[in-house]
Amino acid sequence: MTFVPANEGIAKLKPYQPGKPISELERELGITDIVKLASNENPLGCSAKVKEAVAAELAEIGRYPDGGGFILKDQIQAQFGVVHDRITLGNGSNDLLEIFARSFVSEKDSVVYSQHAFAVYGLVTQAINAQAIEVPAKGFSHDLDAMAAAVQANTKLIFIANPNNPTGTWFEEAEFDAFMQKIPSNVIVVLDEAYVEYFPENFNSLKFLDQYSNLIVSRTMSKCYGLAALRVGFALASVEVTDYLNRIRQPFNVNHLAMVAAVAALKDEAFIEQSRVVNKAGMAQLEAGVTALGLSFEPSRANFLLINVNADPAQTFAALLKEGVIVRHVGIANHLRVSIGTEAENEKFLAALAKVLGLEAKA
């Protein structure tokens, strides 16, 4: 059979590598007492109200979902004040990131994003075979001035994240506003807010939607809301931008049970507040534990820490696996990203880290 080559951009791609699942480590090493702190999942799982809502709809599995996503869009409108025709639903926010790129970027165009940012920005750019403009970070943070200056005549899209994954760094409203004022109105800016719920007092992106018609705000329900397995995300933008996004969005990209779960999750404000409390306590626990080991970390407004282990991250990652602890090797020299877990999970990680690095905590 004659081999048919893939599109040039696809042929050059290396697949995204998600965090190692617990089941895989169990098969590989025969370990059963495993802590997974690799994928920034909510250690509380999801709300009990979500489970009840999903259970009540199991009889509907045999039917297609509402392709327009009315019930979820209605809840988003009620909660965030954004009308239906400014909402795009996604099978997780990764699905949305691809939709953004496919809607506005061709292989003749360029996409701007930061060094040390979410790997998918580069992947979706490469898939289209567009020009990637990766702007050097300022430390581990977005250099917004440099990113604005990097925009070229063929730039169609800019990806920025607040807070940023995998570094946890953030920028303030005034910095963002100054950045947006420098960006031509024909360049789409994607503000990826996958972790915004953990520190909502930091930044209110929604007030910028009416001010900047080229802005897309992207959110996920996989993190603080605890719906990672169901894959739900949503994007908020102008009516014009949303119209283009929905032209290529698959009609059933968010399944019925996921939408039902998302509605229940959005309504359960008590669970979200509990998740914030657990996250802040766990963050403080890890910060104190890492400091006691003589290590440093990047301050974070997400649900993870980027830790400088002062060692080869690949070797440290592998050694932690043997201790039953899964973290994330993110390709940054000497650093590993560690999700915030429960108190017991965090303690297991800190003990394992001390063991594999040969360190002793200082009082």
SSE layout and pairings?
Blueprint: H1 8-11, H2 22-29, E1 35-36, H3 48-56, H4 70-80, E2 87-90, H5 93-104, E3 110-114, H6 119-128, E4 131-135, H7 144-149, E5 155-161, H8 173-182, E6 188-192, E7 215-220, E8 233-236, H9 239-248, H10 256-267, H11 269-292, E9 296-298, E10 304-308, H12 313-322, E11 325-326, E12 335-339, H13 343-357
Parallel strand pairs: 1-11, 3-4, 3-5, 5-6, 6-7
Antiparallel strand pairs: 2-8, 7-8, 9-10, 10-12
Helix pairs in contact: 3-10, 4-10, 5-6, 5-9, 11-13
Describe the structure.
- The protein has 363 residues and is of the alpha/beta class.
- The protein has 2 domains: 14-45 and 270-357, Aspartate Aminotransferase, domain 1, CATH 3.90.1150.10; 48-268, Type I PLP-dependent aspartate aminotransferase-like (Major domain) (Aspartate Aminotransferase, domain 2), CATH 3.40.640.10.
- The chain is 39% helix and 15% strand.
- The protein has 13 helices and 12 strands.
- It has helices at residues 8-11, 22-29, 48-56, 70-80, 93-104, 119-128, 144-149, 173-182, 239-248, 256-267, 269-292, 313-322, 343-357; strands at 35-36, 87-90, 110-114, 131-135, 155-161, 188-192, 215-220, 233-236, 296-298, 304-308, 325-326, 335-339.
- Strands 2-8-7-6-5-3-4 form a 7-stranded mixed sheet, with helices on one face. Strands 9-10-12 form a 3-stranded antiparallel sheet.
- A hairpin with a 5-residue loop joins strand 9 (296-298) and strand 10.
- The longest helix has 24 residues, at 269-292.
- It starts with 7 loop residues before the first helix and ends in a 6-residue tail after the last helix.
- The mean pLDDT is 93.
